[in-house]
Amino acid sequence: MEFHPILWIYSIIQWVLDRILSPRPPSPKTTLGRPRIAVIGAGLTGVSSAAHCVGHGFDVTIFEAGDEESIGGIWSERTKFNTRVHSARQDTAGRWVINNDPSFGYFDGVLAAVGTCGDPKMPHMPNQEAFKGEIFHSSKLDGKTAAGKKVLIIGGGASAVEALEFVVHTDAASTSVLARSDKWIIPRNAFVDMLLALNIFGQETVFSWIPETLLKKLFYRDLEDLAPESEGLFTETPMVNSNIFHQIRDHKAEWLRGDIIGFTEDGIRFRKRAKGVPKGGPGREVEVKGDMVIMATGYQRPSLSFLPDDVFEEPYQPPNWYLQVFPPEHVSVCCNNCTYVNAIGTVGNYHIGIYTRLLLMFLVDPLARPREFWMKRWIDMTGYLKSKAPTVAFDFFTYSELIYWFVFCIAINPFRWKWAPFVFFGIGSALPKDIVHGESQIRNGLGMKKRHHE
Question: Are 419 and 352 in contact (CB under 8 A)?
Answer without folding.
Answer: no
